[in-house]
Write a structure and sequence with these properties.
Largest sheet: 7 strands, mixed
CATH architecture of the largest domain: 3-Layer(bba) Sandwich
Radius of gyration: 27 Å
Mean pLDDT: 93
CATH topology of the largest domain: FAD/NAD(P)-binding domain
Low-confidence stretches: none
Structural class: alpha/beta
Length: 559
Amino acid sequence: MDLRKITEKVTVSPQIMVDDMVAIRDAGFRAIICNRPDGEGADQPSFEEIETAAKAVGIEARYVPVQSGMVKDEDVDAFGTALDEVQRPVLAYCRTGTRSATLWSFHESIKRPMPDILAATKAAGYDMNGVARRIANGGKTPTDTGDAHFDVVIVGAGAGGISVAASLKARKSGLNIAVIDPADIHYYQPGWTMVGGGIFDAQSTAKTMGSLIPKDVHWIKSAVAAFEPGNNAVILDGCRVVKYDRLVVCPGLKLDWAAVEGLEETLGRNGVTSNYRYDLAPYTWNLVQSLKGGRALFTQPPMPIKCAGAPQKAMYLSGDAWHRNGALKGIDIQFMNAGGVLFGVKDYVPALMEYVDKYDATLNFFHNLISVDGPAKKATFRVAKPDTAPSEVTVEFDMMHVCPPQTAPDFIRVSPLADAGGWVDVDQATLRHTEYDNIWSLGDAMNAPNAKTAAAARKQAPTVADNIIADIAGRSPTSAYDGYGSCPLTVERGKIVLAEFGYGGVLKPSFPPFLLDGTKPSRAAWFLKETLLPPIYWKAMLTGKEWMAKPEKIKVAAE
């Protein structure tokens, strides 16, 4: 037998035999649903034989035959009725298990989110992406062929999505472009560190989405349910279908707060905060101002995360505030890092260590936050040091700044666009999908090994725009992304270590050392972060003005 569990209550399998029945009973199954019509193959027992053997061991059996490749709406209804009436756990089977998995997917589509359905069936060995449109349609057979068609469809209206739309319009104004995003508000997320440090007001980091999407670009205010890259289609919630000639995928990533037990329940109270959320960053500053003594924890989960320096930025700005108000001597700062180094590019570590020492912060590597007891003010970490058996340690705190675990969005992870890790699979230079030639990706959701920062998206957007325009003209890619990312590390109020680097940790400074040496803390870098970068973001990057972001041209060898 080849039993493939989809949920705790439903398992599917290829054809079972009469002799399997005792083992099926011993595995705990209370009922069997047969989805294979009698006489489909010479090697299969009849349902009557299966039913007789099942009854002999106390298992109920139901017959819901489905013709191969033709799952009708009434078949789904019949399967749902049988599933609701029999005792569970239940085993459904057909020749390979695919029909049974498909029936379950359609039956569950009314009450279960599509990403959950696709993930559950994928884990059982069945890819339901080919019927995603029907799942989105509540399990019923869709009758549409596409509700709209665009030259370019962009999924996600964050920093990457709006920038690439503007860059495309700047190159070819007549393009018919649509941006898909359900959000009403667009956030300047790099500013949230400054909000948590008492420098920016939260309101200054938010603008309405409608005010930022470029003129003549269609805004489809909806969530994406699935992709049909073979049909050049994006399926929206409610089974609306948007067709495209070329697709850009940049929905950002998912902050997985639920991955830490007890975290969601205590965020914003009990001294637990995070600059990774717009509504919590002001709470960070409130906690910093009110803390006069005790222990402050700053956590960092396993990579990848967006803005890998953000967890320690919060620590430095908090330490600086306590240094200024005289409270630092009474505060025990602990940096709990799931990784093994302070910062991934070694050139910047000496300057950062000076501030670790200044604030008397303790660095705890290989410590990954797994649970929080907010009312008790206790945090538990899994400690997994190299060549040492994993252990757990519980630490009390008075204040804790949490950086949550992060993954690709659910609808990306279970899509045909994803690699084994769940990220959109692209060529790291051209940002074109490795399998689908008319799909590109940028920003946090793709798998190029660069830092996930807004500065990276600023460089990626022109590269994608250039290469799409070249593709429209029938040419090969013309531009390459070098992995550039920037992380302005706010080590104290008024000074920043400006980390700029590309693939492999190669330094990529934007300024000559005599103007700004990024490996040392400087006021010039602070001026850049506080005063220049916000208007560059709002007025240049999101409007297609590619200041200091011109794409690197691919050099073509002479014939």
